[in-house]
Amino acid sequence: MVLFGLVASQQVLSTLGRLQDARLREYARLHLDGLAVALGPFVLHKDVWEVYDTLDRARANASGERILFTVVADERGRVLAATDPLRAPVDSAAAVYSDNSVPVDEVTSSKGTKVVRVAEPLSVQGREVGQIMTELDVTDLVDQRRTATLALLAGNALATLILVVAGYAVVARMLKPVELLARHMGESGGAPQPIPEDSIPRSESPLSKLLWNFNEMAGAIDARAEAERRLAERERFVSLGRLSSSLAHEINNPLGGLLNATDTIRTYSERPDVVRKSADLLDRGLRHLSEVSRAILEENRLDRSGQPLSQTDFDDLRLLFEPETQRCRLELGWTVDAGDETLAGFPSAAVRQIALNLLLNAASAAPTGGKVALSVQSRDDGLMLEVIDDGPGLSETARSRLLSPDPVAPGGGVGLRLVRDLVAGMGGAITYDRSTGRTEIAVSLPREEKTQC
């Protein structure tokens, strides 16, 4: 507003100055042209007295007090006559009185001086016979400009002050809803409280809509907090169900093989080699069940500091899984290309759980007469387990359970999610590939770095 006032004031003063200068030049030209017509013959004949008389009559007829002093000089630059003979004696040098003089077309009162000198040549029939020099009083014009400047400054200051006060009042009124919103947000303490409806302006302004939106947001946050509380409570029940399901799932599967082993002992009790082999299988299976039970009691987290993995574990898995393939009439492929030295760097229970769950899932997906294969290979950076089947592949929900860390909807088996949790806990990775009618799930387990004490 101040800048706008300054620009506007400058425009007003410029316009006033142009009008004053135009009037001053018009006045000076009329005065000098009239003197030139009257004085021309007398200056040509050097008639000093007539020149004096003409100057006196011109000053007497001039309106106002604007003409202060006039000097008439001949072609030699000597004074012929002046309105003040004492100041400009006859035959004195006229150049003294023409200092700082300007032509009529360049006369201006904007320089701030109260006296302006104007000089114009005096010609008679195209012949220059002398020069006329006049001092004009422009005090009134300078005073007018000064008065206009002060009036503009005062008016601009008053207008600016009024606009500032009015603008402050308007903005303060506009910001009241924002202050109300800021106060409620600052006092919320992390839980926004709705603004009382009687405090919200009854209008369709954007600020009123903002306050209503804040109330809706506060209600949505409360609803979300309640939903999260209910979800957390539900998740506790889901976890409990998952724990029970895992316990039943992981204990029930090996029991079939163990019962087969006890049946074998009863049937071939007279053959010590068969009894010994079945007893070893029973011992390993029972130890495995003990590890699973202890791990589930420890918040469903398998003990990774237990027995190391070995080729015997995969032999046991094959013995436990073969009855399932025979029941479904599946062709089983089994390749373990890793020695005990390599396998000993991985926990037995976790790897067996990963392999068993993937094999059971592949067996349930493969069609009757289909094929299921397990491949275990040693890599420089760890161990690679691959389970392949010729089934239709995993559904979107099943892939989410196996590959995504996002929460899953309740329902469905826990085997794939258990595999994902075990692999993630060991720092491994799972890849899923479906091509040429085959489903391949690959689990990459990194080798654990052993620190020496």
Structure description:
It is an enzyme of class 2 (transferase). Residues 246-449 form the Histidine kinase domain. It catalyses: ATP + protein L-histidine = ADP + protein N-phospho-L-histidine. With 453 residues, this protein is an alpha+beta fold. It has two domains: 2-147, PAS domain (Beta-Lactamase); 231-446, 2-Layer Sandwich (Heat Shock Protein 90), CATH 3.30.565. It contains ten helices and nine strands. The protein has helices spanning 2-44, 48-61, 139-186, 206-267, 272-297, 311-327, 340-343, 348-365, 396-403, 415-425, and strands at residues 67-74, 79-82, 115-124, 127-137, 331-337, 371-379, 382-389, 429-435, 438-446. It has a five-stranded mixed sheet with strand order 5-6-7-9-8, with helices on one face. A hairpin with a 2-residue loop joins strand 8 (429-435) and strand 9 (438-446). Helix 8 runs antiparallel to helix 10 (415-425). It is rod-shaped.
Please give a quick description of this structure.
The chain is an alpha+beta fold. 55% of the residues lie in helices and 16% in strands.
Please state the overall shape, judged from the principal axes of the Cα atoms: rod-shaped
Q: Determine the structural class based on helices, strands and strand pairing.
A: alpha+beta
Oligomeric state of the chains present here: single chain
Distance between the termini: 78 Å
| Biggest β-sheet description | 5 strands, mixed
Q: Can you count the helices?
A: 10
Q: Averaged pLDDT, please?
A: 79
> Mind telling me the C-alpha Rg?
56 Å
Quickly give the CATH architecture of the largest domain: 2-Layer Sandwich
Strand content: 15-25%
CATH topology of the largest domain: Heat Shock Protein 90
Low-confidence segments, ≥5 residues, pLDDT <50? Answer: 298-305
